[in-house]
Amino acid sequence: MQAPAKPKLVVLLVVDQMRGDYVDKFLHQWTGGLKRLVEEGAWFRDAAYPYAATETCVGHSTISTERSLRHTAWSPTIGGTVDLGRV
C-alpha cells in the first residue's frame, strides 16, 4: 500500500463556544464549507488538552504545534506575545 500524497494545504479550524455534539446535530443543515471539512477532512472527536486550565489564545497556540504552553510565545498573564529571548 502506498502512502497518500502530502497535502498542499492544511487548514486547522478551531470553533470556540460550540458544543461538540452540535456538529452531528446540525450537519444535515450545512451545505458549504463546514460540511465539506467534516465529511472530507480529518475530524478529531476526542481531542483534548493535556492540561486542566485552557485559555483561548494560548490554547490555540498549542493545537497545531504539539508544544506545551511553556514553550509557546503566548503568556496568559500579560495578554499577548512575549519575546522569549528576553524572558
Your description of this structure?
The chain has two domains: 12-47, no CATH class; 50-87, no CATH class. The protein has a two-stranded antiparallel sheet. The model has no long low-confidence stretch (mean pLDDT 74). The chain starts with 21 loop residues before the first helix and ends in a 6-residue tail after the last strand. The longest helix has 8 residues, at 33-40. The protein is mainly alpha-helical and 87 residues long. The radius of gyration is 17 Å and the shape is globular. Helices cover 24% and strands 5% of the residues. The chain has helices spanning 22-26, 33-40, 56-63; strands spanning 74-75, 80-81. A hairpin with a 4-residue loop joins strand 1 and strand 2.
**H/E element string?**
HHHEE
Name the average pLDDT: 74
Low-confidence stretches: none
Largest sheet: 2 strands, antiparallel
- Described by the principal axes of the CA atoms, the overall outline is globular
Domain unit count:
2
